[in-house]
Design goal:
Layout lengths: L13 H22 L4 H12 L14 H17 L10 H25 L4 H11 L4 H10 L6 H30 L14 H35 L3 H21 L4 H12 L5 H24 L4 H6 L1 H25 L4 H10 L5 H10 L9 H16 L1 H12 L9 H10 L5 H4 L10 E5 L3 H12 L3 E6 L2 H9 L3 E4 L5 H6 L7 E4 L4 H14 L4 E6 L2 H9 L4 E4 H17 L18
């Protein structure tokens, strides 16, 4: 893998031309796939296969964009780490971890013999089985968010399983060099078979020291730097610092002989526990999406279309086998650990595809220094991943259709009894109370200045469930200690709005004085939740009209409010103005 320092050089000549071809092809195919309501990641893979050496040959070799592709995977895994919210495991974490680990390992174990029967060696088959046991975090979460199913029982269980899979993928990435040694392939670098034991110990110590340094910097130093940037209201500085952290962590792990992808994920994961995670995720989102398109398109270049055409039947059968085995393995694991049959089936179908980490693991296993997978095996495995991603939205539609028509299958007696003994419900249906409680209003308040505080206190006094969004890190820290639900970030950032719970909110109240942010927030909030009530604050009538056009239901205009307040004060101080009309009850004046 090329050094990260090589990416400092700007692309020129053929590199710029190839980057233009990649982005153009990815954009065209992505638009076509979205018109067909299909997932966007397979679009990038198809675009890469079309323009690569196995397709039209517009790009002769994927190695020509290796540096850009490496930067893309660093930002992609940094973003995945940033979204890794361990807090979702806080309640029922034992069950979530058990389901995640059990279902993933069971899926890998049932696919391993199939890979051996297909002609792979035992180590290579295990590498492929581990890769295909991973599911797609990007595709599944995007579909669940669009359908507002992330907080349903099957949505929560799917998300926690994906979270555990991310950690398992890191372990699998570290284990692949060992599998290459088992396979009898010479491994270069830290895992070389002819390295003396003292060198291996020294390299292991360097790896431990490097990871420890990343953890210490990520826990002690980086949050302080981001806190200072946030105090200065500098969003650009926060984005630059976080991007530098991603590249620095990736470069450090690469220097100590580990994968740069591991360092990027670890850097993002350390930042996921800070209050800046939502703001950073939204800021880096466009950049991450751009380079993700480059990465997946570059991966697609490894697909040799003539080979795929010659083995189309094998690829289809392998994909069906993988989807079936993963569905059964994941569903059985969920059911055995306390979920109902319906929830287990939906989770199994939702996570039956392969994912981003599948491509990363296949790329590591097929690296020239390892030689664990041949070129043909890699092409066929990547083709299975692409096909499974393409059918994921259709499969999730079928799962939702079946869920409404299947009888409710209870959890097994041993699992439901254990959950009852712990005081935890076996599923959402069993835990539903007989009487539906009165639902509290859920309100999001953007800005915790004087206006925001008055609004928050008034709503809290009336029993509303208020969540605050603010850009002052000191305010976020203080109010968080006091027990208020508060999120750091820019309210016009879609990730911040989603983390504050906009999809479930009844109203969004924009109390901040910055009109440009208010207008952007109105537009983004209306896209994310068409039914939410938006109450905005603007300084002038003209901006109030724009806010209404962008989705605000009600607008409080400061110049009008000031005029009304001044009118009342004048009336109180000076009294009512005199009139020519006599007071009521006064007789008319005589003409005499």
């Amino acid at each position: 893998m090329p050094s990260l320092l090589a990416m400092a050089a700007p692309p020129s000549g053929p590199g710029l031309k190839e980057l233009l071809i990649i982005l153009a092809a990815a954009g065209i195919v992505a638009v076509a796939m979205q018109r067909l309501r299909l997932a966007i990641i397979p679009a990038y893979l198809i675009a890469g296969a079309a323009i690569g050496p196995g397709g039209w040959g517009l790009i002769s070799s994927p190695d020509s964009v290796a540096s850009i592709s490496e930067l893309a995977i660093v930002l992609l895994l940094f973003g995945i780490g940033l979204h890794t919210d361990v807090g979702v495991l806080r309640y029922g974490w034992k069950r979530s971890v058990s389901v995640g680990v059990g279902s993933t390992l069971l899926a890998a174990l049932v696919m391993w013999p199939v890979a051996i029967v297909a002609g792979l060696s035992a180590p290579a088959g295990l590498a492929v089985a581990l890769a295909l046991s991973m599911s797609s975090t990007a595709v599944v979460l995007r579909i669940l968010q669009e359908r507002r199913e992330l907080h349903t029982p099957d949505g929560r269980l799917s998300f926690s399983t994906l979270l555990i899979q991310d950690f398992i993928a890191i372990g699998a990435m570290l284990a692949i060099p060992t599998l290459a040694v088992w396979n009898g392939t010479r491994v270069t670098g830290a895992a070389a078979t002819d390295a003396p034991p003292t060198d291996l110990l020294r390299q292991f110590g360097a790896a431990v020291a490097g990871v420890t340094a990343i953890v210490l910097i990520g826990k002690l130093v980086l949050p302080r730097i981001l806190h200072e940037a946030a105090k200065q209201k500098s969003s650009e500085a926060m984005m630059v610092v976080s991007t530098a952290a991603a590249l620095g962590a990736a470069g450090l792990t690469q220097v100590i002989g580990l994968s740069s992808a591991l360092g990027a994920f670890l850097g993002g994961f350390l930042l996921s526990s800070t209050p800046f995670r939502h703001q950073l995720s939204g800021q880096l989102g466009p950049l991450r999406d751009l380079f993700s398109a480059v990465f997946f398109t570059a991966i697609g270049m490894a697909v040799d279309l003539p080979t795929v055409a010659d083995h189309a039947f094998t690829i289809i059968v392998a994909t069906l086998a993988m989807v079936t085995l993963k569905t059964v393995a994941i569903a059985l694991s969920c059911w055995a650990l306390g979920a109902t049959g319906n929830v287990s089936a939906k989770v199994g179908v939702t996570l039956a595809q392969a994912g981003e980490f599948s491509l990363v693991l296949l790329g590591v296993a097929s690296a020239p220094g390892l030689g664990l997978l041949s070129g043909a095996a890699t092409v066929l495995s990547v083709s299975v991943v692409v096909l499974s991603l393409m059918v994921t939205p259709l499969m999730m539609n079928v799962a939702r259709w079946l869920d409404h028509r299947m009888p409710r299958v209870p959890a097994p007696r041993w699992a439901s009894g254990r959950n009852a003994a712990r005081g935890a419900p076996a599923d959402a249906h069993a835990s539903a109370p007989q009487a539906i409680p009165v639902r509290h209003r859920r309100v999001i308040i953007a800005g915790y200045g004087l206006v925001g505080r008055v609004v928050a206190d008034a709503l809290t006094a009336k029993g509303a469930d208020a969540t605050i969004i603010d850009m002052n890190p000191a305010t976020v820290q203080t109010q968080g200690r006091l027990g208020r639900r508060i999120v750091f970030g820019d309210v016009s950032n879609p990730d911040v709005l989603e983390s504050a719970g906009l999809h479930e909110a009844d109203a969004l109240i924009l109390t901040i004085p910055d009109e440009e942010i208010v207008l952007r927030a109105c537009q983004e909030a209306r896209k994310l939740n068409p039914s939410v009530i938006i109450i905005a604050r603007t300084n002038y009538v003209s901006k109030g009209m724009v806010a209404t056009g962008l989705g605000a239901n009600h607008v409080v205009i400061e110049e009008l409010a000031t005029a009304e307040s001044m009118e009342k004060i004048i009336s109180q101080v000076l009294g009512d103005p005199p009139t020519n009309n006599p007071p009521a009850g006064t007789p008319p004046a005589s003409n005499e």
